[in-house]
Amino acid sequence: MALRFIGIDPDTGQQGSPTVWVDDEERELVIQGWKPDEELLARINGTEWVPGHATGIPACENVTRIPLRMAAIVRQALDDAERAGL
Predict the structure, then answer these.
(1) CA atoms in the 13 A half-sphere facing the CB of 37
(2) How far apart are CA 4 and CA 77, in angstroms?
(3) DSSP collapsed to 3 states, the chain
(4) Which of 44, 77, 84, 85 could cross-link to 6 by cystine, CB 3.0-4.6 Å?
C-alpha cells in the first residue's frame, strides 16, 4: 500500500496524533483519529439516516474523530488525490 503522508494535527501533544494520508493504490483517504466514546456511538446508532440507508455502524466499519482544525489538511489530501487523478 503506497501511503502518502499529508498532515498531522497541528496541536498534537500527549493526547494522540490524528493524521491524514492518501493511499494512491486503493484510492482512499486514510485517517487516524480518536476512537469514538460510547456516547457518540449511541448518538450515531440513534440517528435516522437518508432513506434506504440502515441506521448504525455495520460490523465491517467504524468511525474516528478528528478535530475541525484539521479541515485544511483533509482538503489538501482531497486536492492532492484529485491532482493525482485518483
Answers:
(1) 1
(2) 9
(3) CCEEEEEECCCCECCECCEEEEECCCCEEEEECECCCHHHHHHHHCCCCCCCCCCCCCCCCCCCECCHHHHHHHHHHHHHHHHCCC
(4) 77
Tell me the residue length of the chain. 86
- Work out the burial of residue 20: count CB atoms within 10 Å of its CB; fewer than 13 is exposed, 13-18 middle, 19 or more buried: buried
To the question of pTM greater than 0.85 for the whole model, the response is no
Which set of grid coordinates corresponds to residue 80?
Answer: 492532492
Distance, in Å, from the CA atom of 40 to the CA atom of 59, rounded to the nearest integer, reads 16
